[in-house]
Q: What sequence folds into this?
């Protein structure tokens, strides 16, 4: 679908003004009809055009002057510590508003009456005072509406600023947490390579190549906090191959993901700290079975990392698990959870639950 071009500001302003004065026109017609109904028993009968002229001349003039009041109030805004300073100006403006209203209203009525072959007589001081007290109330209502609209707009802007600040802080915190993963992993990988250098130089060379591939894959997606599950698992297999070189042939790795999970996305390098934690605290001698399972069901992605090693001891939750918890909180809030369970026969299972979201590709 071809996107529609944005409407020019002048066109939008013209439509807004048309709707604005249409509202005042309808108000004048309603008041005029009600005034005509109030004079239905007059003798001789009052022509309909006369009460319509009275009310429409008044409402349309007020509508035009209200636009000037909006601008004036924006320049000399009331509220806060400004009210006492600008209140005399608004009192004077209310008098000017009334004089302009009466002058324009009477002028319009005289024109319409002249076109109808009649003479319009506004009267003396009493009608003038009657209009003045109504105009002061009208001016106060318009200014009150201005203050209310501005206060509401400023509150909405503060809420938007607070949300934007919170999002920026969350994104900065998330970027910091994500950035902690790569150096932490790299130091461990380099230590593994260093230990192999003195035992098996070809193996160390293969590990360096594998490390370069892993870093290249990690940096390729560094601009996004998410990765496709299939890419994350491919990265994880390479990482496990790198880590298992400490004790070749002594680790069994099982990675299983159902078709639903493979179509989803997940936080980038979310599983790596969990697997690293299993290597560090469970499979301390590099011997045992490490299982990674991903299942998608009921709108959720369930990930488990389990080992049959030494088992988890309370209070030993390190930087990796804390990092994962915080990233899940920032990305999903209460919609995600991380739980740790210890198998009675030995070993640990870390279960992560998060929303099932489709990958971009």
A:
């Amino acid at each position: 679908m071809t996107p529609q071009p944005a409407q020019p500001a002048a066109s939008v302003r013209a439509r807004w003004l048309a709707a604005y004065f249409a509202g005042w026109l309808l108000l004048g017609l309603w008041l005029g009809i009600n005034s005509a109904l109030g004079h239905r028993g007059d003798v001789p009968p009052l022509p309909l055009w006369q009460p319509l002229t009275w009310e429409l001349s008044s409402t349309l003039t007020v509508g035009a002057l209200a636009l000037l009041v909006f601008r004036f109030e924006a320049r000399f805004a009331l509220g806060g510590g400004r009210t006492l300073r600008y209140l005399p100006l608004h009192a004077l403006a209310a008098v000017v508003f009334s004089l302009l209203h009466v002058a324009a209203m009477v002028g319009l009525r005289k024109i319409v009456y002249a076109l109808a072959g009649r003479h319009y007589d506004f009267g003396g001081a009493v009608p003038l005072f009657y209009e003045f007290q109504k105009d002061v109330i009208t001016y106060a209502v318009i200014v009150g509406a201005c203050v209310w609209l501005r206060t509401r707009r400023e509150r909405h802007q503060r809420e938007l600023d607070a949300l934007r600040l919170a999002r920026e802080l969350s994104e900065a915190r998330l970027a910091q947490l994500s950035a902690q993963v790569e150096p932490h992993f790299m130091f461990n990988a380099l230590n593994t390579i260093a230990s192999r250098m003195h035992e098996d130089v070809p193996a160390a060379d293969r590990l360096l190549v594998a490390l370069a591939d892993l870093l290249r894959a990690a940096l390729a997606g560094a601009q996004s906090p998410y990765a496709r599950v299939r890419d994350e698992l491919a990265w994880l297999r390479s990482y496990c191959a790198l880590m298992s070189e400490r004790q070749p042939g002594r680790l069994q790795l099982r990675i299983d993901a159902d078709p639903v999970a493979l179509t989803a996305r997940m936080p980038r390098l979310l599983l790596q700290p969990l697997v690293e934690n299993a290597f560090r605290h469970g499979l301390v001698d590099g011997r045992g079975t490490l299982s990674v399972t991903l299942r998608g069901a009921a709108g959720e992605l369930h990930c488990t990392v389990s080992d049959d090693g030494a088992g988890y001891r309370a209070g030993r939750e390190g930087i990796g698990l804390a990092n994962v918890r915080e990233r899940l909180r920032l990305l999903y809030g209460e919609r995600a959870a991380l739980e740790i369970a210890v198998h009675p026969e030995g070993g640990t299972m870390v279960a992560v639950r998060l929303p099932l979201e489709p990958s971009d590709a």
